[in-house]
Amino acid sequence: MKLLMIAPPGAGKGTQAVTIAQHFGVPHVATGDLLRDHVARGTELGLSVKTHLDSGTLVPDEVVLAMVREALEAARGSGGLVLDGVPRTMDQARALYEIALELDMTADVALHLQVSDDELVRRLLARAAVQARSDDNEEVIRRRLALYYEVTHPILEWYDERGILVTVDAMRPADQVGRQILTALEVMKQMTEGNPELQRRAVDLTGLGAAFGAAATTS
Ligand code: ADP
After folding, report:
1. How far is the CA of 23 from the centre of ligand 1 (A)?
2. 64 ligand 1 Cβ < 6 A
3. 182: domain CATH number?
4. Is residue 217 part of a domain?
5. Which atom of ligand 1 is nearest to the CA of 13?
């Protein structure tokens, strides 16, 4: 399973990425975690990106892409990976595709988690109260959300056109969202085994939550 995740901050990307990676036995590569680790260890790279992380702005592409290339190379032997945090811009999406083509690691699935803005801000402020992440305060949260809609959200259309987009309603509790994701991915895997053409279809599961009584999402 080669999967990348696109979701606004607070959607539960990290939590679901871990669940998926464990289920399929592939590594979980989170650019935010790798960058925060550099900052914590005080590496040269860490020192150069700290202000970006603290203010919620994007780290330069070349830094992120070099890290991701290394991770893709390392993951080749595992037959897949879950990429979390990249691409964040259309430029990164194109560059990532080039790197992945070169390494024969192009994504089978682009997983999009959908959550309303009010719920995102609520979750991020709740996380801020228990975790000491430098970018979980209201001003920076609003900036990260705005940046997501400006430069990251539009990439979804590209994955939709490529036919690998799966959208899931992530307003419900994490374990329910996780079950729906794994069910969808298992079905896709079976459908596509031996028939790669079927892989090229977009799947939209956001209606399911509403059908089973959950509140409809607004974003
Ligand atoms: P969140 O999903 O809550 O926004 P992440 O842990 O994915 O948090 O990222 C935290 C920060 O790391 C971002 O605000 C940004 O500064 C930096 N970062 C992570 N991934 C990238 C990327 N692909 N391109 C540029 N900056 C990134």
Report:
1. 24
2. yes
3. 3.40.50.300
4. no
5. 2
**113 Cβ closer than 6 Å to some ligand 1 atom:** no
126/161 Cα distance (integer angstroms):
36
Ligand 1 binding pocket includes 31 (Cβ within 6 Å): yes
CA-8 nearest atom, ligand 1: 2
Q: Which domain holds residue 151?
A: 2-206
* Contact in structure between 200 and 162 (CB atoms under 8 Å): yes
**From start to end of the chain, where are the E strands?**
2-6, 28-30, 81-84, 109-114, 165-169, 203-204
Q: What is the mean pLDDT of residues 31-58?
A: 94
* 3-class secondary-structure state, position 207: helix
7 in Cβ contact with 13 (< 8 Å): yes
Question: 164 CA to middle of ligand 1, Å?
Answer: 23
The domain total for the chain is: 1
Q: Is residue 26 part of a domain?
A: yes
pLDDT classification of 123: cutoffs 50, 70, 90 = very high
| Helix/strand/coil percent split, the chain, to 5 | 60, 10, 30
- Distance (Å) from CA 29 to ligand 1 centroid: 12
Would you say residue 12 lies in a domain?
yes
Q: To test ligand 1's pocket by mutation, which of 13, 68, 72, 135 has the most ligand atoms within 8 angstroms of CB?
A: 135
Q: Residue 11: inside a domain, yes or no?
A: yes
Structure token pair of residue 188:
């896709």
Return the pLDDT at 150.
96
The CA–CA distances, whole Å, from 34 to 4, 49, 115, 117, 172 equal: 16, 11, 25, 26, 28
